[in-house]
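hi! just following up on the protien thing from before. the input was this:
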Amino acid sequence: MDLITLLKDRVTPMVMKGQTTYLTEKSTALAEFYPFLLAALKSNSHLISFFQNNLNPRLSDLFTKHPQVKDEFLQAVSQGVPAEEIEPLLNHAIPATLNVIEEEAGSRDTSVIEHFLGQHHTDISSAIAPWAKGLLATLGFGALSHATTAHAIPQQAPPTPTVVTQRPVATEENKKKSGGGLLAVIALIILALLAFLFMRSCKKEDAPTAQPTVAQSNNVTQQAALFQVATDASGSLTNCMANIGNPSFIETLQKDVKQLFNHQTGCTVDSSQSFGAELVDQSALAGVLNLIKGTPNVHMTWTGNQLTLQGSDAIAVQALADKIKPLVKDMQVVVEKPLNEADAVNSSIDQAKQALSSINPDQAKPADIAKALNLQIINFASASKEIPDANKVILDQAAELMNKVPNVKLGIKGYTDSTGNAEKNKALSLKRAQSVADYLVSKGVDPSKLVAQGFGQENPVADNATKEGQFKNRRIEFEVVNTETGTVREVTENGVQEKK
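and the predicted 3d structure came back as:
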């Protein structure tokens, strides 16, 4: 299998995943782009290392000295399809193509890749579209091989001697004939031009009907791309998550994160089409990661047009933010203050007290009781099931109200963060939930009205990569079950919802 066919088989399906419009034109554009890209890499080895070290390579990187040529290239390769449909596809194809070339060459070394491309010059040069050879020459990438030059010269050489030899011996009759022939040629050119413009206008007319469909589906299903990293006390990577709907970019990102942080696992990733294919200011990602490396106890979230930093050392985090801001010009860099756990607990208990006090004992509704209980934070000590004294006051109030409500069962669900062994966390979460149930029973609540469950680190409500997220995930949740109807109602900060 020749090299270009290999790229069509391996890169095209990856890059085309999730595409729904102009499928034939896009596949053709990719097929014409592969030899063009490889010719450029072979002619300028600096591009190889540039793309290897760039998390967000762009088509425009090939045309930095001749930006106007990029427009000519896109116009030719797009076949009448809007350039904004084609260019992102080619952007995504660059790292994916380089990954395949590295695998086939058996090395990331620039000289090895350059030699490998030289071995496949026949595959590459024979696949270059005739219109692309002139553009490569303009960019200074024309010297891929002798084969490329040989193909280009005969196409232009024949007309020159024909014109030169005819001029000295031209007769009046020849002039008339040549004049008539010239008119015929001009007529043919005009007809061909009209046919081309007609076909192009037909394609443009088709475009509006297809594009809105894609836009609508993206608006409904896609979430913004998300990238998170966290470091430990030494500035080493502890957690990394990338939800970006671009498999080729994810593959490149994983390699760079592992190499930069000397981390075997890298990121937890999701490259499905349910996420956007690109981060805002994505080209700055490598620079931002270099700044984060070595900064202790920092957590970064990059999504939408906001980059959020959080850490235990406020001065260090602010200094990091000041360095990042010039790199991400289209984003807002936000420094969040660390959560004060004691203040959060005290505030939650005050809110729960007020909510329970506002319930009329004679008209108490189970959902209102559960909603008030969910306002409190029961901050168990590490590895402990003992209920803090401050929370017992809340449970006392709830017990009095529950004793007046018939036909209701209260579900008590325990959760932990993801630190430690999952099975041990599940057992601990059950012990904590049961501890709450036992306390309510000690206050006169019928045991048949209570059911305790432990879920461990399942269903996190926050990011376990941060201390704040871990604090939020260590929780007790309450839900109510009507024992007459069997209806289960989950009570959260968003209100009361029936579970089906």
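Residues 414 and 476 are 5 Å apart (CA to CA).
The mean pLDDT is 81.
cheers
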